Amino acid sequence: MRRTVLAAVSCCLLVVTACSSEGSSTPPAPSEAEVVAWMDKVCGAVDSTVKIMSDEPPIDMNDPSKLKAGLSDWLGTKVTAVDKSIADLKALENGPHPKSKELATAAQDGMGQIKTLLADTRSKLDSSADATQAVTAFTEMVARANELDAAGAAVQKKFDDSGLGEVARKADGCKSLQTSPPAS
């Protein structure tokens, strides 16, 4: 009988040990579907700003006060959209990919560059004394658009380098953001 009790206790200890060591092991790797769903949300956060940025500002060259007010309001809506995208990306930092935080932060940084450009332009525009200065501020922003393209390409490269390029191609929300690779 003593052997049976000892065997039962040993068996219970083995089960408890197996269960406790199972809980302390590394979490299982996320499924591809989980990573694709996360990537879809990341792209959706970025795409919402991209879509809002695609409209043209209301420009009335005949009325300098309307020109300035229209451009300022337009920039304000863009800054608000970028803020929302940054907040949405922040909420995605704890995604299923091992580099989720790093990648979401990279996307936030790219959006932050857009916000800085827009907010700086709006500040210059709002402090402009005449229509010429307002147009100059806006023209300077447009001239710096290539910097934003470069920032976007750097974020896309970071995702590609992390092995998520193929995942992004599978995520519906990323399809509108995909760019052709630069010509060599």
Question: What does this entry look like structurally?
Answer:
By secondary structure, this protein is an all-alpha fold. The chain is 74% helix and 0% strand. It contains seven helices and no strands. The N terminus and C terminus are likely disordered.
Major β-sheet annotation: none
Rg (C-alpha, Å)? 26 Å
Series of H and E elements: HHHHHHH
Question: Which structural class do the helices and strands define?
Answer: mainly alpha
Terminal-residue CA separation:
80 Å
Q: Using the alpha-carbon principal axes, give the shape.
A: elongated
Mean pLDDT: 79
Instruction: Indicate the proportion of strand residues.
Output: under 5%
Number of strands: 0
Number of helices: 7
Helix content estimate: over 70%
Are there runs of 5+ residues with pLDDT below 50, and where? 1-24, 180-184
List keywords for this structure.
184 residues, mainly alpha, 74% helix, 0% strand, elongated, disordered N terminus, disordered C terminus
Secondary structure: elements and pairs:
Elements: H1 2-24, H2 32-53, H3 64-90, H4 100-127, H5 131-143, H6 145-161, H7 165-170
Helix pairs in contact: 2-3, 3-4, 3-5, 4-5, 4-6
Summarize the structure.
Helix content is about 75%, strand content about 0%. By secondary structure, the chain is mainly α.
